[in-house]
Amino acid sequence: MLDLEPNTPLRTTEDIFVGYTVSPETPRVFGGQVFAQSVMAASRTVDRDRPIHSMHGYFLRPGDVTKPITFGVERMRDGRSFSARRIHAYQDGKVILSSIASFQTHAPGIEHQEPMPTDIPEPESLRSPKELWGHLDHPLARRVVHGRPFEIRYITDPIYLKPSESREPVNAVWFKTHGALPDDPLIHRAAIAYASDYTPMDPILRGHGKTWQDPGLTMASLDHAIWWHRQARADEWLLYVQNSPNASNSRGLSCGRIFDREGLLVATTTQEAMVRVREDDADS
Q1: Are 4 and 40 in contact (CB under 8 A)?
Q2: Tens of pLDDT along 57-115?
Q3: Which of 47, 77, 112, 252 has its C-alpha lying 20 to 30 A from 129's C-alpha?
């Protein structure tokens, strides 16, 4: 899915690429997929010694998994150290994702990071999705067990089918791809962006005793942002910890930190989502 095809129409001010949904995870295009493909498209227009370090995108329309996605990249600026790109993902002539990405050449300077949480169980000690839900004949269970290119192991209790006993607006998982990836650092940054869209809504729901199967619940990602701080491999276990500092006006905000097993802070994420519940089910 990350191997986009270049395309050269007759008249355009954009660099054009085409991507596909190889193995649909959901009836609509998964947001992490089109986000990661946008990372790849934008990066194709920048020198490789200037890697992507941040991207912020707005999900404007649902995508159709049966149709290709066209990515138009506008070269907004190329400075001495930084480059900026605007990326639109199109289907049927309409924008489904609009994002801006920034790139930077390596520059040594001051460093600090938030420490990795302590007392985190090792991923090998946690049950896999197949062990948790492989026996269930349920569409969501089948999707989580068989439909993802990533394995996700929950540290906090998952809320797919039943609410959490704790109403803390937090979430923590380990994740990695099922198979090995090429050594290309860009592939790993794009893959991390892909996986960063899996669980941001969980802390919002957990804090209110909700599950993904609650009747009357409607959720949709509005925007997503990621900042890559350090290089890491997406085919090795990464820790993703999240919290939701706010929910109001039918929107919930989630913030995340991604660490490698050595405790290095790899990336930071934010996402805001529309969250609507039936009035009789809403918290008092």
Answers
A1: yes
A2: 999 999 999 999 999 999 999 999 999 999 999 999 999 999 999 999 999 999 999 99
A3: 252
